[in-house]
Specification:
Helix content is 72%, strand content 12%. By secondary structure, the chain is of the alpha+beta class. It has two domains: 1-95; 97-173, ATP synthase, E subunit, C-terminal (hypothetical protein PF0899 fold, 2-Layer Sandwich). A four-stranded mixed sheet has the order 2-1-3-4. A hairpin with a 5-residue loop joins strand 3 (152-157) and strand 4. Helix 1 (3-94) crosses helix 3.
Length: 211
């Protein structure tokens, strides 16, 4: 083999070796890039999942808050209706004979609680005439017809330091939370009953489809 041919052969081998080495380096570099992309994609996917989870939790929390607000609003509306019914019942009660007995007992109880000899009895406008058949305790020195109330009485000392309120609105306020609890209990029973009825209806429809 002459020198020129040998040089050419060596050049070819060197070139082939360089090409092989270059290809290997490229493959390795590509593999590294691929791994890097996989890791980056995996991180991005995890970040996306976390963001999605946070968004879902926020939406669920928001949904729960909204649901609670709607339920509370419904309860409040029902409670107002309930109080309106009570007011109507009290208006009817005021026209009955039992109302006179209620006034008598309320006045006597207030007088016993205050334990003073100079008391003022206050009644709603138009109610003074209802006291005619009632013997007032001797401690009552004055009767005023100036209460802005539906019914009931207020007994107080002349100096205004002691006051017993048996007006309808005060009695309702004292019972408000108790009435609300009772109403909520009844509403929950009603809701549960509707849910059971709805679930039963769905089961019936499913059976019919299967038949």
């Amino acid at each position: 083999m002459n020198i020129a041919k040998r040089i050419v052969e060596e050049a070819k081998k060197k070139a082939s070796s360089l090409i092989t080495s270059a290809k290997r380096e490229v493959r390795e570099e590509l593999k590294e890039k691929e791994e890097e992309l996989k890791e980056r994609n995996a991180r991005e996917i995890e970040i996306f999942k976390e963001e999605l989870k946070e968004k879902e939790e926020e939406e669920m929390a928001s949904s729960r808050i909204e649901k609670k607000r709607i339920i509370e609003q419904a309860y409040e509306e029902k409670f107002r209706q309930f109080l309106d019914e009570i007011v109507k019942e009290l208006e009817s009660f005021k026209k009955s004979k039992e109302y006179g007995e209620f006034l008598k007992r309320s006045i006597e109880r207030a007088v016993r609680e205050i334990k003073r000899k100079d008391l003022i009895l206050r009644v709603p406008k138009g109610d003074k005439s209802l006291l005619r058949g009632i013997k007032l305790p001797s401690q009552i020195k004055e009767v005023r017809e100036d209460l802005e109330e539906l019914g009931g009485v207020v007994v107080e000392s002349k100096d205004g330091k002691v006051r017993i309120n048996y007006s309808f609105s005060t009695l309702i306020d004292k019972k408000r939370e108790e009435l609300k609890r009772e109403l909520v209990k009844e509403l929950k029973k009603d809701v549960e009953g509707r849910k059971k009825k709805k679930a039963k209806g769905k089961k019936t429809k499913t059976r019919k489809k299967q038949e």
